[in-house]
Amino acid sequence: MRLFFDNGGGVCYICSVDKYSSNDNDATRATKITEGLAEVRKFDEPTILLFPDAVNIKTGGAVDWDKIAGIQQAALKQCGDLGDRFAVLDVPDDPTKLVEEEADLFRSKIGMNNLKYGAAYSPYVKTIYDKTFRLRDIMKNLFDSTGTALALKSLFKDSDKDASGTPIKTKLDTFSTVYASNDLMNSRLAVYTGAPATDTFSSSKLDASYQAIVNAFNGAANDAARLVQLKAAFEFVYYLYAQFEGFVVNHATPTNKINTATPATPTAALPIITRVIGSTVLRAAVEDFLASNLKTSLQTFRNLDNEAYRIATPDISNTAASMAVVDFTLFTDAKWVPAAAVDSGLINGATLLDKGTQALNALTQIFRAAKSGLDSVVSIGLALESATEDALTPDLPIYNSILSVLNTSINTLPPSGAVAGVYASVDRDRGVWKAPGNVSINSVSDVSELIDDDTQEGLNVDPNAGKSINAIRAFYGKGILVWGVRTLAGNDNEWRYISVRRFFSFVEESCKKSTSWCVFEPNDANTWARIRGQIDNFLNNQWRQGALAGAKPEQAYYINCGLGITMTSQDILEGRLIVEIGMAAVRPAEFVILRFSHKLQQ
């Protein structure tokens, strides 16, 4: 997936977000993030690279500084090679180290190459958004300090009971049975609906399968061909209803005429669902739904089936001798078995085509009721799980403690994502030339570690390697601010500031793209004059916006292009058109110094 958004100077690209799943181990994630970076290189649009997920890579439970640094170095190299993008890096949050120690280790791992094309930020930020955790999430993902799976009920004693005297362990077992039944029911339904087992189900797959039969009926050349498709439609709808009973009744797994893999051939075999609901409470709830909803639809279906058999030649009935394996004996519970079929006069018409069309239309209404039933069955399971959880959690004080720790941990995030948003906001409101600093971060309540002036001085100015790290700081009455605007090349007089580097990249890319028209144009004075005029107009606009220093345009920039100035005769013979641009980019007032002195009374 490529995530683009306009940030004034170009486009932001967040890579690797679809490269791995939550089941991948850290080594696999590192490999896939690197592969994601390689894919980003193929695109011309990105101007910012960031990968906040990379700093979570661990080996043996400890932060893997080497793997993280390898990814960050690859990003800096790409930025340096292409010159049109900038890397926003995170300093990993290592719980065993202080901020200063993390900074020193980051500097030693990042190397010395392409530092002007990236900026680093520390510490992490705490967002205000609580994650929605369910009890099932904790029960399925609870581990002890050694990484061994831990059952939640093992944290309770047999004597722990609720106010009514029911053992907590028993209630936890009941809840576990409910959500396990839901998972199994959902996974079986996913075969038909096409949705992942964890999603609310759509019926798109069933729609496609049934519509294929309707299309075949409408496109049939004669009555015999139409009857074949009408019979297929009856089978399809009948077996869809048979799935409902399968949730609560053990079938002998007869052949299912629904084929969602190849809708055009609905006779491929899939087993009818055999009882999957282990929870007796959930089973009773589904049975009540079947009794109140399924029976009415099945009765309508049986009546329609009976009349279709009466009017059609050859047979299209599901209950005829030729289809004895497909009959209503599948439905074994009196709660929802329909009564004997009656001739309801559902189908009328002068010709077999008229009658077949009416039968198909009536059958479609029954199919839609079945689709609606699928959603209802899912809702029944989710509602029961939620009610069971609500009744259980007040008796689990440890549950609320776990939630508190999880929300604190999960919502503490690397700052690069928020910083990219700051870049985009400043670019849009002011321009790429404005340093992205002294800007508050929205939806953030705190930082993982407080940084004072002394600590920041060590981050901002590195006396050894000159690698600057920008601080995210909390200020009283101001909020959480980005309080640093330096690239990693903190001692470089030319490329010390993020805004200068990004502004030059912005101008370079803009001029390169806007002058592409001159390729294959005559390499003469007319072309050179047109190029100078075009670039001059662009830079003049930037100067007027405040991006360039100087009281007059000629003090802010210059443009050279011509024979004997930027090109030799040999350059022209070899097809080179060389333009030289110089700019006096504005630099941020990083240090505001106020001088005070006593003035004695005169």
From TrEMBL:
Ranges that cross the membrane: none
Entries under InterPro entries matching the protein: Tail_sheath_C, Tail_sheath_structural
All residue ranges annotated as the Tail sheath protein C-terminal domain in the record: 492-596
Pfam families per record: Phage_sheath_1C
Assigned protein family: Belongs to the myoviridae tail sheath protein family.
Name of the featured protein: Phage tail protein
